[in-house]
Automatic annotation (TrEMBL):
This is Polysaccharide pyruvyl transferase domain-containing protein. PANTHER family: COLANIC ACID BIOSYNTHESIS PROTEIN WCAK. Coiled coil: none annotated. It comes from the Bacteria. It comes from Microbacterium testaceum (Aureobacterium testaceum). Transmembrane segments: none annotated. Residues 27-320 form the Polysaccharide pyruvyl transferase domain. It holds the Pfam family PS_pyruv_trans. The lineage of its organism: Bacteria, Bacillati, Actinomycetota, Actinomycetes, Micrococcales. Signal peptide: none annotated. InterPro entries: Polysacch_pyruvyl_Trfase.
């Protein structure tokens, strides 16, 4: 059955876009993807739909107005069309806009929660019925996608753009959805405006050390003792060799908390002059400046690796969600 076009009495603002980001909630990578999208879309006014005001730190882009609108529960829980008040709120916010962007990241294949995937695809369908330009961008496809997520994304693709973020994901998805396009991860397009911190200055001051290493021990590794031991061995060997090592959490939140894993690693290492632990959540620009002062990065967080590579710093990435194969 063909969907009817929705007509609104609202006046359309030709310079307004609505963005649905990922969860945020203490994730530097999510912050960087949102920042990149707000910097690069061709619209001067942007409305960002967030779970809460604490989901993201404020994004500032010169000559652009960026407003956060709270819509709790928009992409979670029961089916979207079983929650008419949320759907109504979404349509009200979207009505004056000309474009709708969804940050797909590692959500669209249903690997985390197929219900959220279906909700995001359904919101794209609603946007196209309302006559908006809709795009799902910067996402990976793990090759073992949930069937319901695949079905929902295929429907969304009929009237919207799907931009996959790496060649491996593109090959996996293209056989199922031929209209999918190959792009890149959004973080590759974050403008490089490094911000100096005490950590970048500490890393830059090498003293007698000849090399520097930034290490991220992801909270995703907490259930894998063998990998945690491997990270410790790498750090201990580097420190014994005189390398200056900075431990940097990339995600700080209740679930998959990097800070818990990084503190555990730091406790095993003990106090050393050429070793330091970051215990706060930094901004992407601050992280970019830190890694620019390193000779190499070891991480289990893909976006930290991307920030390093953008600065010409080699990165070794431990894959945990089948999404980094196309990056390297």
């Amino acid at each position: 059955m063909r969907a009817k076009r929705w007509r609104s009495s609202s006046v359309t603002d030709g310079d307004l876009a609505v963005v649905l980001p990922t969860a945020g909630d203490g994730n530097i990578g999510d912050q960087a993807m949102l920042q990149s999208l707000c910097e690069n879309v061709p619209y001067r006014r942007i409305v960002v739909l967030v779970e809460s005001a604490r989901s993201f730190r404020k994004v500032y882009v010169e000559h652009r107005s960026i407003v956060y609108v709270e819509v709790p529960g928009l992409t979670g829980g029961a089916g979207l069309f079983k929650r008419p008040q949320l759907l109504k709120r979404f349509m009200q916010v979207l009505a004056p806009a000309v474009a709708f962007y969804v940050v797909g990241a590692d959500i669209m294949d249903g690997g985390y929660d197929p219900r959220e995937t279906v909700c995001r695809s359904s919101l794209v369908n609603v946007a196209t019925i309302m006559g908006k330009k809709a795009t799902i961008t910067g996402f990976s496809w793990n090759g073992q996608a949930d069937p319901t997520a695949t079905w929902a994304l295929r429907r969304a693709s009929l009237h919207s753009r799907l931009i996959v973020r790496d060649p491996v994901s593109y090959m996996r998805l293209h056989s199922q959805i031929p209209s999918a396009e190959l792009g890149s991860d959004l973080v590759f397009a974050v403008p490089n405006r490094p911000a100096v911190t005490e950590y970048s200055e500490w890393l830059a001051y090498r003293g007698a050390s000849t090399s520097t290493l930034v290490v991220n021990c992801s909270g995703l590794l907490l259930k894998n003792a063998a990998l945690l031991d491997a990270f410790y061995e790498v750090v201990a060997n580097m420190l014994d060799g005189g390398v200056r090592v900075l431990i940097l959490p990339h995600v700080i939140r209740t679930s998959d908390d990097d800070l818990v894993a990084c503190r555990s690693l730091a406790q095993r290492v003990g106090a050393r002059d050429n070793f330091r632990l970051v215990e706060e959540l930094l901004l992407p620009d601050e992280v970019s400046h830190i890694v620019s002062n390193a000779d190499a990065v070891l991480t289990a967080r893909m976006h930290l690796a991307i920030l390093a590579m953008r600065n010409g710093v080699p990165a070794a990435v431990v894959g945990t969600q089948r999404k980094v194969e196309g990056l390297l």
